[in-house]
Amino acid sequence: MIDFYLNETESELKKLFSEKKALYPDKLFSAMEYSVFSAGKRVRPYLMLLSAEFCGVDCKKIMPLAVSLELIHTYSLIHDDLPCMDDDDFRRGKTSCHKAFGEALALLAGDALLNLAFENMFEAVKNNPELGLAASYVAKCAGAEGMIGGQAIEFSNDEFDEALITELCMKKTGALICAAALAPAYVCSDRKKFNCLGTFASAMGLCFQLKDDLLDEKKCEPKSYLGVMGKEHTEKTVAKLGELALKALEPFDDADNLRDLCAFLLNRNK
Amino acid sequence: MIDFYLNETESELKKLFSEKKALYPDKLFSAMEYSVFSAGKRVRPYLMLLSAEFCGVDCKKIMPLAVSLELIHTYSLIHDDLPCMDDDDFRRGKTSCHKAFGEALALLAGDALLNLAFENMFEAVKNNPELGLAASYVAKCAGAEGMIGGQAIEFSNDEFDEALITELCMKKTGALICAAALAPAYVCSDRKKFNCLGTFASAMGLCFQLKDDLLDEKKCEPKSYLGVMGKEHTEKTVAKLGELALKALEPFDDADNLRDLCAFLLNRNK
Question: Beta-carbon neighbour count of residue B247 at 10 Å?
Answer without folding.
Answer: 13
